[in-house]
Design goal:
Strands 1, 2, 3, 4, 5, 6, 7, 8, 9, 10, 11, 12, 13 and 16 form a 14-stranded mixed sheet that branches. A two-stranded antiparallel sheet has the order 14-15. The two termini are 31 Å apart. It has 259 residues and is mostly beta strands. The protein contains two helices and 16 strands. The chain is globular.
Length: 259
Amino acid sequence: MQPSARLVFKPAENQTVWAAVSRAVRTPSEGEGKAFANFSLGAPTAGPGGGLYVPTFVGNTELDSENLLAYELGYRIQPSHHVSVDVAAYYNDYSDLVGRRPTRFVPGTPVGSLSIQPFNTLTAESYGGETVLTVAPSDSWRLSAGYSLLMLQAHGDPDSDAEALERNAPLQQFVLRSSYNFSQHFSFDAQLRYVDRIHDVPSYLTADIRLTYRPTDRWELSIVGQNLLEAQHPEQASTLGHPSVEVPRGVYGRISWRF
């Protein structure tokens, strides 16, 4: 069950206050929740008797879903027809988060294996907020600037590496966006994004653009460029012993038909 309750109050015509409480779940992935999952996590490590053991990930069929209770509060004011300000704060309460911990050493020749399984051993809470300023210099041009702050604290079995969860949450993010309509049929969108460093992934700044042509109300043709400031860059830390995958610069076209 993933219910959500929302409340909106307008103290004035140009102001809105809203609040929300929601529940969400994440079911275990195929790798986490299946017994057939079994693969190496890295180089051999010393174990009992001085032997070498390869850390090996083993799935756990008894995993439960991860749970989230999210509390949100927001305020919006539009001081003029061309300016609006949004401010929001949140508190997230996580339970039954999946952490990994060693379970047993299995001797072998020339090396044995150290079984590492996922368990629902972690809890966490995150809190922070975001603010967005939107300005419309004209009816065809809109600019916005956004800032978000994320604080995360994880708890649980020390062997489950709760610290890894905290290290993989970017503290700050900034976004600048511009949207311009040349005509009823042509528009151009651009954004500049900054994401704070996480763990062994440095902070990065990148840009995305989109040029759109709408010949009719139902058809839309667009060309999109993503991550244009670098040939490639990492966005997430390595997991399960594998190196992080770097996101490359990309350009693609899209055709949409609405009916």
